[in-house]
Structures are given as C-alpha cells and as structure tokens.
C-alpha cells in the first residue's frame, strides 16, 4: 500500500511505509554483504563483528546501504499495488527521501501524463495546398523525362573527347591513405552548380585522375577518382515505340500518358489526404491546453537526453545546434510539449467517441514498416511483443489517424489558391531563418 501525501497538477507525492522488521532485515543484509566482501586480519570472512565494521566502514555509509535496500523493497511494493497500476505514468517513480527510524518512510514522486483541455469544436477549418491539372501534367512530363534518362542509349566517346554536361562517366573511386578497396561508380554529369564533383569532371578525359578532400581538421579525408570510360547519353524520342519499350501494358504514347496521369493523381490524392490528417492534428494540438508541472517537463527532457546518450545519439543531435545545449533543450521542450498535447487530446477524444485500435490493425500496420525486409509474420509478432516502444508507436499512429479522420468529418477543408500557398511557404522559410539566427 502507498499513501498520497501531496498532489499538484500531474505530480503525486506518495509514501510507502516499511515496518521495523524490514528495517532490521535490510540492516542484517547490509552487514552480511559488507562482511562477505571485506578482509580483516584475525577474523574469518563473514565473521567480522558489527562494531568493528562500523568503525572501518562508517555508520553513514552503512546506513546509506540500508536505505538503498529499503528503497528497492519499497519500489517493489509500489509496483505490486493495484492502485499504482492504474496510474498513467510518463516517467519511472522518482525516489525523493527515506526517513529511517524504527520503521522506514520511503517517499516517491509519481509523474503522470498530464490532463488536457481540448477545444476540438474550435478547430473550424484547415487549409490544404491546391492540386491543378497543370500540376498533374508537370508530374507526367517529369516522369516521362525520368524514363528517357533511365533508358538512355550510351555511345562511347573517343579518347580525346572531353567530358560534358549530360555525359555518363564510369570511374574508380579510391579513399587515399587506407586499405579500402576502390569502388566502381557511375556518374551522370550535371550542371556544375549542383556539385563540385561535376565541376571537376567537366573537361576531363578517360584516363584522367581527379583528387579532392572532404571534411575539416582531423575528419578530413582525401580521395582520388580515375576516369575509366566516358559515354555520350542519347535520349530516346517520345513516341509510341518508346512507350511500348518502357511499359508493355500500353501501345501508344497517349496510352502511357493516361496511365501516368491516373497513377500520379492517385499518389497525389494520398499525399493530400495525409496533408489533411497532419493539418487537423496540428490544429488539434494548437487547440489543446496542458496542465503540467514544469518539474515534470524538465525531468522528461532529462529522460529523453539520457536515452539519447545511451544510444550514443546525443552528440549527433547537438551538432545540429552548433553544440548549444540550451538551444537544444528549448527545442526539445517545444517538441515534447506538442507531443504531450497531441497524445492527451487524441486519447481523450478516442475515449469520448469510442475509437479503438485492434491488435489485428496494429499487426497489419507494423507489416507496412517491415514490408521491404521480407520478415515473416511470426518474427514480426515476436518483435511487437518484445519491443514495447515500437508497439506503442504503431498503436499511437493508428489512433491519431482514426481520431483525425473523425474530426475531418466536421472540419471545413479550404483549398488555398496559389498566392496563399506561396505566402505560407515564404512565412515558414522566414520562421526557420529566424530560428537559425536565435
């Protein structure tokens, strides 16, 4: 049993009381552990008198060991309590103090996921970018050009002919100063503005060697690239023969364009639908208020950073902020606040409207994540049962999607005109630039 002794916002302070018998048992265990691991001249292992151990080790350290044992037992009692299991904790219980006398009072802080106030009725309308016939045609033309590029005919260039934009180069790539085997690479030469490697290649011939460096300081690496062969790429004409070559289901170029339009529209419709989902979830987050202790938020940030350090991801994340830990913590604070708002709002609306996610739905969604790996159903079921983070992520994604679809039934979806979309994109770029300057 545990006793509530204080409660503020999402933080409960609770007390677990351990009887005198447990205190004595913990003390006996502490002395037994010390006695087994200490050697004192004139005494057999495990037979050193307690008073001598008190003098050698010190009562402060011994009492500390006793408290550690009692804290573990109190934690076990906490987790075994049915009332504790009903709490929706966002962090593991935090030990705050142990008052040890005849009995022991062990105090914990319990940080639950915060309550939220959701004003879903105020969502009103959401904006989505426009989709025009011109967009479809632009995508069709881009697809056709990609097909021409992929099916280009390669004509070997003469030994004295130089590399030009549009040529294809076969080269041997070496990492200097290492035992790494050279790699064979194929490069389609583009405008020099798109990369230094193109600028270096243009004007060279088969047999030439290019040397360059990447990185700075100790991370600097030297490379060399030997041009082996150079080809002129000849693109096929856009005609019926080309259409039949790239797709055996069509007979004419017109048929191919019709098929591409259908595929592109279906693909863009899915993108727009996901855009609606994301827009409504963002609006829901904006309309949600969080009743949360700043202390809880700080602990949550510390918890996230600790997990990143365990996975050796923290330094990499910090690099994006030029090593500024305060700026990174501020960003984490905003991201975690938004995450908690959305999580709380989605769960509250799902409960009110009876929206649930089944185990079958979780399994089918998880299969999409591992679709390209060819993983067996049996193996995936094992992963879902053992990796609770992955399981909860899949479940939360599904629940968010279902809640968003429910909210979209009553929301007004407004299609922006082109000028509004451009202005919105410009505002977003400006916001990002301002963040970078801070």
Write up this protein.
There is one protein chain. The protein has 438 residues and is of the alpha+beta class. The protein has three domains: 3-112, 2-Layer Sandwich (Alpha-Beta Plaits), CATH 3.30.70.1050; 153-234, Chitinase A, domain 3; 262-437, Trigger factor, C-terminal domain (Trigger factor, domain 2). Helices cover 53% and strands 19% of the residues. It has 15 helices and 13 strands. The strands form four sheets. Strands 7, 8, 9, 10 and 11 form a five-stranded antiparallel β-sheet that branches. Strand 10 (209-214) and strand 11 form a beta hairpin. Helix 5 (133-150) crosses helix 8 and helix 12 (359-369) crosses helix 14 (388-408). It is extended, with a radius of gyration of 33 Å. The two termini are 50 Å apart. The relative contact order is 0.10. The model has no long low-confidence stretch (mean pLDDT 89).
Quick gist of this model?
The chain is an alpha+beta fold and 438 residues long. It has helices at 20-36, 50-57, 59-80, 82-85, 133-150, 196-201, 240-246, 253-286, 294-310, 314-319, 325-353, 359-369, 377-386, 388-408, 418-437; strands at 3-8, 11-18, 94-100, 104-111, 115-118, 125-128, 153-156, 168-175, 183-188, 209-214, 221-234, 288-291, 412-415.
């Amino acid at each position: 049993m545990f006793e509530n002794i204080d409660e503020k916002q999402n933080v409960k302070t609770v007390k677990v009381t351990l009887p005198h018998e447990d205190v004595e048992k913990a003390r006996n265990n502490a002395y037994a552990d010390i006695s087994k691991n200490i050697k004192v001249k004139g005494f057999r292992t495990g037979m050193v008198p307690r008073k001598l151990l008190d003098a050698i080790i010190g009562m402060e350290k011994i009492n500390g060991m006793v408290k550690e044992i009692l804290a573990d037992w109190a934690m076990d009692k906490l987790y075994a309590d049915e009332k504790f299991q009903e709490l929706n904790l966002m962090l593991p219980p935090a030990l705050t103090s142990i008052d040890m006398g005849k009995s022991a009072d062990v105090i914990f802080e319990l940080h639950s996921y915060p309550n939220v106030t959701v004003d879903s009725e105020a969502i009103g309308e959401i904006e989505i970018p426009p989709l025009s016939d011109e967009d479809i045609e632009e995508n069709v033309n881009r697809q056709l050009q990609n097909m021409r590029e992929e099916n280009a005919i390669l004509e070997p260039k003469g030994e004295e002919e130089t590399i030009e934009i549009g040529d294809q180069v076969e080269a041997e790539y070496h990492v200097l100063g290492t035992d790494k085997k050279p790699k064979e690479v194929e490069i389609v030469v583009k405008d020099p503005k798109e990369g230094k490697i193109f600028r270096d290649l243009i004007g060279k011939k088969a047999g030439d060697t290019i040397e360059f460096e990447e990185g700075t300081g100790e991370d600097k690496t030297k490379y060399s690239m030997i041009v082996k062969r150079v080809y002129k790429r000849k693109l096929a004409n856009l005609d019926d023969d080309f259409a039949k070559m790239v797709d055996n289901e069509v007979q004419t170029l017109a048929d191919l364009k019709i098929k591409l339009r259908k595929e592109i529209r279906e693909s863009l419709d899915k993108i727009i639908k996901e855009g609606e989902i994301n827009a409504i979830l963002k609006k829901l987050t904006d309309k949600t208020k969080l009743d949360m202790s700043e202390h809880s938020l700080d602990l949550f940030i510390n918890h996230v950073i600790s997990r990143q350090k365990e996975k050796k991801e923290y330094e990499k994340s910090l690099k994006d902020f030029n090593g500024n830990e305060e700026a990174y913590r501020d960003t984490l604070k905003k991201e975690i606040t938004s995450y908690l708002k959305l999580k709380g709002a989605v769960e509250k609306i799902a409960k009110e409207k009876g929206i649930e996610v089944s185990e079958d739905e979780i399994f089918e969604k998880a299969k999409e994540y591992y679709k390209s790996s060819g993983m067996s159903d049996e193996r995936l079921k094992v992963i879902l049962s053992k990796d609770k983070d992955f399981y909860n992520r899949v479940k939360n994604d599904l629940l968010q999607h279902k809640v968003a679809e429910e909210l979209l039934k009553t929301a007004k979806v407004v299609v922006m005109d082109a000028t509004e979309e451009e202005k919105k994109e410009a505002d977003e770029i400006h916001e990002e630039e301002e963040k970078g300057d801070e």
